[in-house]
Amino acid sequence: MNLRIKGVGFRYDSRKALEAVTFEAVEREILGIIGPNGAGKTTLLRCINNTLKPQVGVVLINGEDVSRWDRRRIARHMGLVPQSAVITFPFTVLEVVLMGRHPHQSLFGGESERDLEVVREALRLTDTLRFATRPVTELSGGERQRVIIARALAQEPDTLLLDEPTLHLDLNHQLEVLGLVRRLTRERGLVTVMTSHDLNLAARYCDRLLMLEQGRVYAVGAPEEVLTPANIRRVYQVEAEITRHPATGMLHILPLASTG
Amino acid sequence: MCDTRAFGWHERQSVDQVDRLYTVRQRRRVLVPVALALGLVLTVAWAVQMGSVDIPPGTVLRISLHRLWPGIPPTWPPSHEAIILDVRWPRILLEMLVGAALATSGCTMQGLFRNPMASPYTLGIASGAAFGAALAIVLGLPFYALPAMAFLLALATVFVVYRIAGARGGTAMETLLLAGLAVGSFFSALVSFMLYIAGEKLAGIVFWLMGGFWASDWDKVAIALPLIALATGGILLFSRDLDLLLLGDEQAQSLGVDTERVKKIVLALSSLTTAAAVCVTGVIGFVGIIVPHLMRILVGPGHRLLLPTSCLVGAILLICTDTLARAVIQPTEIPVGIITALLGVPFFVYLLRRRKQILEW
User: Which residues make beta-bridge pairs with A79?
Assistant: First the structure.
């Protein structure tokens, strides 16, 4: 199972958002997409799952061009956890996660025993079984985020796309959600692509990072290769000090001053 | 019913809870509509007894069955047969069809627009149909041209509104709302102009605008029945897609909904349903707004239960109100649109004050 992005370019009416983006991601790997505001992170995710149609280039899953698939087929392969997915209607958590089964159900058919089985498993993996009968509108941000991840898992995807999964979450929930993403990626053999603004968390949880600058790939590789003071100065216009924690060996990025 | 071996001991209780909720949900989807369908049958049975001429219930039943099963000996005066078969039955069937159509269409529009203010008439259908009807009356066209004109102009209005809003590729729902408002106002102005120049035909137009069932006959049932049944049935197939659309386009798409296509089809079906209802009875307000809100409070936001229950309750409600409308000041009657507004608005205000979630959905 692999995901290949080849020469993807996208422009909105008035400006270029992505240009010649090429990379590859494989199963059991978390690829982090980083870059400043407006670098094209979210646009790239949308191009991957074809909610935006790239004007040039292709997105390939196992060598197959995704733009030729219909939405249902794409949804059976890719789960999306969108940026702050607020649900304002009082669906129960169970119902929300069952929605992940939509691409597997026919126009006339209802839910099957198998749908319920998959949903149960998704609830268990995300540790959301406990509040599965509650309305999703009553949950905290961290709980809701896990429900949305459970819904994406219920799609039984091979690729998981997450757009700023830790936005608006407190420290504890940030670690909890990313720990979950890492566990799922390893256990289920997923290809995970995730955007992030938090360089420290990205360095800690992603296997590889892809740094975008104004819609172009500026650097790609292991976190310590991508997160260098020179790269951060160039792409973020920030002087940063990069250290390794003496005990844990984790990268630590300390922004010092803006040079922009 | 479930295999819980894969789950840890402490998780079993939660799994059981999930299974129970799932089972209850599946059961509710069957039982609630069946109960309401029974309610509808009882309502029809009650309504067919009601009227200015007293006919014993047994006779009503035998006359009704006589048409289906001619073996029953006719022991009643022909005038009673005419009242039951040619006056009451077509009228009740139309009330049922129109109530079901407006409630389903209102529910669909509110879901599609994610807006509690949306109604069957949001895209300007009512004004378009009213203009068609007024034009037919003013031009003195034969009586059967009136529903045809109303129907065609209703659909033409929606088409124009959709084209205006969809001019730039994707259809923005906000643009659609505004386009509906604009085109609706335009046709309202034309209707006012028609009223102004109508002369002695003024009363005809005004009566049509108020909406009612006094001119019900089997021809109208024959027009409305297939259109409303097919379009409503079609909408029900998209219940799951409507649920997903409530989450917004991005989430719906990522879950496998072709949002543009679904919106187009469902808008077309909803418009067809509304146009079929409006062209046979004129503009009847509030059923399409109140019933879906009431049902949303009672059965929740999921369209697989919300749509069929709204449909059935809409039918029941309109049969009841119209039966009242013809029973209050016999032998004359009040246009049912007045009753739905008079009863509906206070009830709606009560709901608003008790359950503020209507505005917070």
Answer: A160
Q: Do the beta carbons of residue A76 and residue A121 sit within 8 Å?
A: no
A69 CA to centre of own chain:
21
CATH at A31: 3.40.50.300
Bridge-based pairing of strands A238-244 and A78-81 is unpaired
Structural domain count of chain B: 1
Q: Look up the domain containing A164 and give its range.
A: 2-86+158-258
Classify B116 as helix, strand or coil.
Answer: coil
Calpha distance B350→B180 (Å, rounded): 29
Cβ pair B205, B138 in contact under 8 A: yes
- For residue A193, give the 3-state DSSP assignment: strand
Asked whether residue A62 is assigned to any structural domain, the reply reads yes
Count of domains forming chain A:
1
**How far apart (Å, rounded) are the C-alpha atoms in residues B72 and B355?**
52
> What does the pLDDT look like over B104-163, one tens digit per residue?
999 999 999 988 889 999 999 999 999 999 999 999 998 889 999 999 999 999 999 988
For B340, the domain range is 76-358
Q: Does a structural domain hold residue A198?
A: yes
* Rounded Cα distance, A24 and B36, in Å: 55
Q: Residues of chain A whose C-beta is under 8 A from some C-beta in B?
A: 49, 51, 70-72, 74-76, 78-80, 82, 85, 87-92, 94-95, 99-100, 102-103, 105, 107-108, 110-111, 116-117, 119-121, 123-124, 129-130, 132-133, 151, 155
In a domain, A106, yes or no: no
Q: Is residue A11 part of a domain?
A: yes
CATH number of the CATH domain containing B187:
1.10.3470.10
Q: Is the ipTM of this complex over 0.90?
A: yes
Mutate to test the interface with B, among A116, A127, A138, A145 (most CBs of B within 10 A): A116
